[in-house]
Amino acid sequence: MLNKKIQTALNDQINNEFYAAYLYLSMSGYFKQNNLAGFAHSKRIQREEEIAHGMKIFDFVCDRDGRAELGALGQPPNRFESPLDVMEQALEHERAVTAKINDLYELAVKEKDYPCQALLQWFIIEQVEEEASALQIVEQLRMIGDSRAALLMLDRELGSRTVAE
Ligand SMILES: [Fe+2]
Ligand SMILES: [Fe+2]
User: Fold this and answer.
1) CA-CA distance, 36 to 157, in Å (whole number)?
2) Which residues contact 37 (CB under 8 A, 6 or more apart)?
3) For residue 63, how far is its CA from the centre of ligand 2 (angstroms)?
């Protein structure tokens, strides 16, 4: 049986993951409108990954005989200034998610919920990857500066990204 505090915190995290999916879909739309199909594709893949994250927690709550309560999704930003602006916001978002996962882990330790700690260990490692890949693209966009040719090369590279399992 799932403790109430943990259940509430996990339900919040389900919402955070689905919001992230919504955010990345919005970002994907920006790239599509700006003819950067590779960037658009990579954000669409990330959207799928965030849904899988949300489902992982949803299934965990159900399996622990808890109640998965779904809240309203916030509105994601719909205006972006540049590819760098999008990726800086994506990085900032991932850093905020990492902080939330860490807080959740702290709660699971305090409440001595061992299965929840095991679940969250997967998320802790996943966040290291998510931050690293967002940071890499931010840094590459900074190197690229105003070079359209280099931007198109990066776009082509991002077009080959596949869903991570
Ligand atoms: Fe996630
Ligand atoms: Fe993420």
Assistant:
1) 11
2) 31, 155, 159
3) 23
Closest ligand to 128 CA?
2
- Cβ atoms 66, 2 nearer than 8 A: yes
- Nearest of 2, 75, 38 to residue 160 by alpha carbon: 38
Q: Which ligand is nearest to the CA of 43?
A: 2
Residues 6+ apart with CB under 8 A from 73: 15, 18, 19, 22
Q: What's the whole-model pTM score?
A: 0.94
Residue 50 alpha carbon to ligand 1 centre in Å: 5
Q: How far is the CA of 157 from the centre of ligand 1 (A)?
A: 23
Token output for 60: 């965990």
Angle subtended by helix axes 37-63 and 83-110, to nearest 10? 10
- C-alpha 51 to ligand 1 mean position (Å): 8
75-130 confidence digits (pLDDT tens)? 999 999 999 999 999 999 999 999 999 999 999 999 999 999 999 999 999 999 99
What is the structure's pLDDT at 1? 78
